[in-house]
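Appendix B, record 7
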Amino acid sequence: MLRRRPLHEGLNPWPGYVDALSTLLMTTIFVLLVFVSAEIALSVILSNRTRALDQLNAKISALADTLALEKSKSHELEMRVATLSRALSEAQQARTALAESLAAKEAEIAKLSGERDAKAAEAAKLSEQIAALTALRDELEKKAEEAAARATTEAEQKAAMAAELAQEKNFSDSARAQIALLNRQLEELRAQLGSLQTALAAAEEASKAKDVEIANLGARLNAALAAKVEELQRYRSEFFGRLREVLANRPGIQIVGDRFVFQSEVLFPLGSADLTPEGVEEIQKLASTLKDIAREIPPDLPWILRVDGHADHHKVIGGQFPSNWELSAQRAINVVKLLIAEGIPPEHLAAAAFADYQPIAKGDSEEDYAKNRRIELRLTDR
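Structure tokens (predicted):
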């Protein structure tokens, strides 16, 4: 039975307060959920950006290493170019100096020739004057003779004629003295011209002698290089001859041209760069033979034993090596390390990698792939 509230009791406000507080609490929780969701999304975005930034930094570091390597190579090339440019500049300077000296001598010769021509023209002019004076003197002498023959008695006319004749004779003697002086100067100029021509001929002979000396040096250098190549060829032949004796009739080892070829299965497990015990034994035999030959090779002969690593066309999937480049390179490096450990000087060794880009068998069979997986040894010069 329901209990009726007395009419005198007021309205109860608490249910309304409870509803308001509930609504406020739910709104606050919703806002917090939205804030937490935004925070999580922002954290994911920042994490992705950080990861991308790390990747970019790694790429930048790799590019910086590549750039440093290229700069080092460029610096070496610049040093070689600078050395060659310096030698060329010195040769050009010497040639320019000789050309300038020759031009100066030629200019001096031309100047002396001009002076000689001027003196000759002046001498010719004086000769003409002397000839005119001589003709005048002859004419005067003829008149004097004619006057003497007529036996003129006019003393004053005779005195005047004698004075004029004496004056003409004095003038003629002065002209002759000038001509003699000019002739002496002309002879001196001819003597200087002769000495200059002699000096020029000597300079030309010296230049020809230097050209001959340079040609002889070039011929001697070519002969020395040919002798070194021939000497290296002789030791290369001896090296291959001894290796044939040591490695004769062994499976997986063959001679191709000027190099020994080890099939990879003789030295390494498939897909690995670690030498097998049998591979270590083969390389040790090779090192022993190479040490015997190295003792006979002169120290000034720049020989190199190059170890080339090759792989087949199969792509490397998983494992230690990301590609055939790394696999072939590491195999060549491991062979070189073992040779160094066996006493071969490191300065006479080199490791090279060719991946699968230098096959000796073009087919796609397993036999062709096995032929292409190989280590090649080549004795060459530096």
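Remarks on this record: The first helix runs from residue 14 to 149. The beta strands are 253-256, 259-263, 303-310, 349-353, 374-381.
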